[in-house]
Amino acid sequence: MKKIIDGIISQNPVFILLLGLCPVLAVSHTFESAYIMGFCVIFVLLFSNLTVSLIKKMVPENVKIPVFIIIIATFVTTVDMLIKEFIPDLHATLGIYLPLITVNCIVLGRAIAVASKEKVLVSVQDALGIGLGFTLTISAVALMREILAHNTITIMNDLSNITGYKWIITVLPVNLDLNIFATPAGAFLSLGFLLAIFNKFFIKGDLHESS
Amino acid sequence: MSLVSIFIASVLTENIILTKFLGICPFIGTSHREKGALGMGLSVTFVVFVGGIIAYFLYHYVLVPTGTEYLRTILFVLIIASIVQSINIIIRKKFPKIYELMGIFLPLIAANCAVLGIAFLMIDYQYNFIETVVFILGSGLGFTILIYIYATIREKLAQRPVLASFQGVPIALIIAGIMAMIFSRFGL
User: Fold this and answer.
1) What is the structure's pLDDT at B1?
2) Taking Cα atoms as reference points, which of A64, A89, A56 lies closest to residue A162?
3) How far out from the chain centre does Cα B122 lie?
4) Is the ipTM of this complex over 0.85?
C-alpha cells in the first residue's frame, strides 16, 4: 500500500521523476483519452514489470536493455491491437502515442530500476503505484485543459461503441471558452502551471535538486 | 501535398516538438547550453534520417508484403536502438569533445520518442520515398532550430529571478507553450 501512495506523490512519475511527458502533453485534450492512455500505461507497466521480474535471473547483464525493450514492445503491440479491434475510434484519437508507450521512459525506467532487482510482488506493487500516479497526473492535466477550453468533462464518447451511450458533463455555469487550452500551446502551459503548483505544495527544500 | 509545403509544415507549423510533443526529454534536458543544443539537434536529425529510411524500406518491402504490419513497433524499436548504439560508439571514438557535451543524452535517443514517432508518422501520412526524405529532413531541422532558440532563451533566463516553484522545468514548459503559440501562427 505504501508503495502505491509513493507512486502517486513522492515518486510521481510525471511531476517528480519528469518521465513520460510526451503522452501527458499529447493526449490530454480530453479527459477520456487521458484516462484511457493511463490505463494502457498501467497495463503495459504491470505486465512488463511482472515478466521482467520473473525472468530477471535468466537474462545476461549485457543484453538486459534490448530484452526489456522487446518485452515492453510486445505488450504495447498487444494493447495496440486490442484497442484497434474493439474501440477503433479511440485508436484514431490516440494515434501514434499508443505505440509510443514503448519508448516511454517510465516503463523502461521501472523495468531497469525496480523489476530487474526486486521480487515479483514488489515489482507489481511498484507498477501499480507508478501507473496510478501517471494516470492521475494525466487526468488532472486533461481536466484542467478540457474545462478551461470547452467547459466539459468527456467521460464516454469514443467508448460509446462498447457501452452504448455517451456521457459528457458540463461543469461551470459559464463557458470560459479559452480555446488556447485545446491547442498544443495550452498543453505546455497547463503542465507547466500544474507542475509549479505541485512543487509549491509537495516539495520542501531545494527545488533544483528535485527538478 | 507538394514537397515544399511538406518541408515548411514539418519545420514550422507542424514542428515535432511543439505540435506532436516528440522529443521532449532532450528538449528540456540538454538545452541549457547553445553548443550542446546544436549537437543534440544534429545527432537527432542524423539518427532520424538513417533510422527513418531503414524503417521506410523495411515497412514497405518486408512488413506490408508479408502482411505483418503489426510487428512495426517491435522492429522499429530494435533498429533504432542499434543505430543509436553505433552512433554512440562512433562519436565517442571520433569526436570526444561532442561526446563530453552530450554523452549522457546519447543513449537516451534510443528511447527517444522523436525518432520512433517520426517513423510512425511518415507511415500514417502515407508518404512516398521522396516525400519521406523531405519530411524527415524538415522535422530534423525543425527540432534543431527549436532546441537552439530554446537554449538561448534558457541562457538569458538563468540570469533573471524566477519564482521558486517555477524554477527548472515548469518555466521551461511555459516558455515552450509561448513558443508553440508563436509557431502555430506561421500557418496563417
Assistant:
1) 63
2) A89
3) 14
4) no
